[in-house]
Amino acid sequence: MSRLNESVARVCGLLTRADLSSDQTVKDLLAESASRRHLDLTDLSAAEQAELIASRTLQVLPDVNALQKAFTEASDAGRAFVAKFGIDPTAPDVHIGHAVPMMILSRFQRMGHHVVFIVGDITAKIGDPSDRSAARPALTDQEIASNLATYRDQVSPFFDFDKAEFRYNGEWLGDITLPQLIEILAKIPASMSLQREDFRNRLAQGHGLSIAELLYSVVMALDSVEIGCDLEVGGVDQLLNMQMCRKVMEICGQKPELVATTLLIEGTDGTGAKMSKSAGNYVALNSPATEIYGKLMSIPDRIVVQYLKALTEWSDTEIDVIERRQQQGSIHPMDLKKLLAGEIAAAIHGVDAAMDARAEFTAQFSRHDFSGVQSMPKVGREMLNETLGALLTKVLRFLPSMSEARRIARQNGLRLVIERDGQQDQIALDESAVYRTMAELLEGLPSGINEKSAVVYIKSGRKVARIEGIGMS
Q1: What are the sequence ranges of the domains in the chain?
Q2: Fewest CB atoms within 10 Å of the CB: 58, 133, 244, 249?
Q3: Any bridge partners for residue 417, and if so which?
Q4: Cα(217)–Cα(248) distance, rounded to whole angstroms?
Q5: From its phi and psi, is residue 130 left (phi > 0), alpha (psi between -120 and 50) or beta?
Q6: Strands 258-262 and 59-61
């Protein structure tokens, strides 16, 4: 039995019998997953490796058999199989949607293959046009440098960079000459780009299309040529770009790379839209464990299994056990969602941080007791003359804008919370409260809040801050 199968057997034993509401059970499961994220997978055969990769992709091109064959051929030739993933630094945050292909690339590394993580500091100047109705705003060199400054740290939980490569495509794209580029472009039919549905839609709607956008996939393909890529992993929205990589590699006299596409996970807002920075429905990898945990607890129940498949080390066998228990009614949906939130928080911050986040969430939203929360932000006395909207958007940064603060208020999501003598009272704040100072809002509270046994909090959705200078300050 392989090391992976032994781990799966241990987890299935827990999932079959254990109470998933138990903190100890959850901690045991998170510890097993943490161990698996570093598990040596070199004892898997080429067929087993290909099957494991295929189980977490939407499609492998040309097919899974070609992937198995490529593993064997690389091994027989005495060279490393090279797998690649690239990301353009169009924003400072990497989010968990990007982690879907990174999870697969992490498995490649543990199988003993060579992984190259590429940051597109040159391709970011164009901006990936895939699925966009208009061109991206141009980024300056300074903006790109600022965005990518922490990328390696953000993705490091998924890779061992003592063995994997972290590269910038400016290392080679900056040296490409015009004659070299023309030689490649002369062999690519214009129809290959213009057949893209997103491009056709934009032209039909009169939005226009720049020559730079048409060249994006060709420029991106030169990354694969540079590293001699065997397989590229990317979201399904990157399929046409990756097919261009295959074409350009062939033009350059190389064997075309294999392609593995991954699911675009839904965002956290429950609308069904894919996770994206522009939609604001994402979870950033550089968020604290408590924030990652809390945002994941807000996702709809219907996408929990989708997240388990895309963002955890769980196998289909383990997820089948969970789905059977769901059908039997022996797992509460909230307990499963807490386990998912713990799995993802632990992948980024470790098991202890994930369990602390679980405890804080339970204190806030299960027991309705904020006093046990250790990392809660505070509103000091000096801030009481700020408007509630300014506090939420500029000081606490709970919300991105005043319009969002008003929207939350309309949905009954802005509240003052009073805790005293083991009891909790909540006062809903209407839209007009966004423009009033905290001092004004506090004046309208019931008598008795200055007693030492009382503590007052401001709550915006799932985010909570303690107001200092009231009660037990």
Answers
A1: 59-262, 289-372, 378-467
A2: 133
A3: 426, 457
A4: 9
A5: beta
A6: antiparallel
Look up residue 246 and give its two tokens: 């295959």
CATH number of 378-467: 3.10.290
What would the pLDDT profile of 191-239 be if each residue is shown by its tens digit? 888 777 778 787 887 777 888 888 999 999 999 999 999 999 999 999 9
Tokens at residue 42, please? 């070199």
Distances (CA, A) of 419 to 251, 290, 377, 409, 432: 69, 21, 17, 21, 24
Query: pTM here?
Result: 0.78
Rounded distance, CA 220 to CA 224, Å?
8
Strand 414-420 vs strand 454-460: parallel, antiparallel, or unpaired?
antiparallel
314 CB-contact burial (10 Å; exposed 0-12 / middle 13-18 / buried 19+)? buried
Amino acid at 238: Q
The CATH class of 289-372 is mainly alpha
Q: How confident is the model at residue 297 (pLDDT cuts 50, 70, 90)?
A: very high
Residue for token digits 């632990």? 346
Burial class (CB in 10 A: 0-12, 13-18, 19+), 182: exposed
Looking up tokens 């392609």, which residue turns up? 259
Tell me the one-letter amino acid at 141: D
Share of the chain above pLDDT 70, in %: 93
The answer as to CATH 3.40.350.10 being correct for domain 59-262 is no
